[in-house]
Design brief:
By secondary structure, this protein is α+β, with helices and mostly antiparallel strands. 28% of the residues lie in helices and 26% in strands. It contains 3 helices and 5 strands, in the order βαββαββα. A 5-stranded antiparallel β-sheet has the order 2-3-1-5-4. The termini are far apart.
Length: 109
Amino acid sequence: KGPRDTNNRGEAKKPEEKKVAHANTLYVRNLPKDFSDEDCEKVFSVFGKLTGKTIRAGEGYAFIDFDTKASMNDALSKPVVFNTVTLSVQEKKSHAQRTKEKEERVRSN
């Protein structure tokens, strides 16, 4: 088994845990350092059901997983504000997308 076949406890993933990675995930930047799990629920649950989140407030970013693409798109379509701070929200890109964009930037320089 590879690292993607186990969860963060080292146990074999259940079939429902092997869903398409990042299909409904937002990449959020400009987070205040005090942004908490509860703040995340309050700010993003208005767009739909959250199925996961990784918050790195100290580093200023988070990944937010929604149960549907429609919920994710709803969050993308409106300004997301937390305590007067407008958060930068975009769809999470796959590793392949990021690599391709990086190669294109290098070629154009």
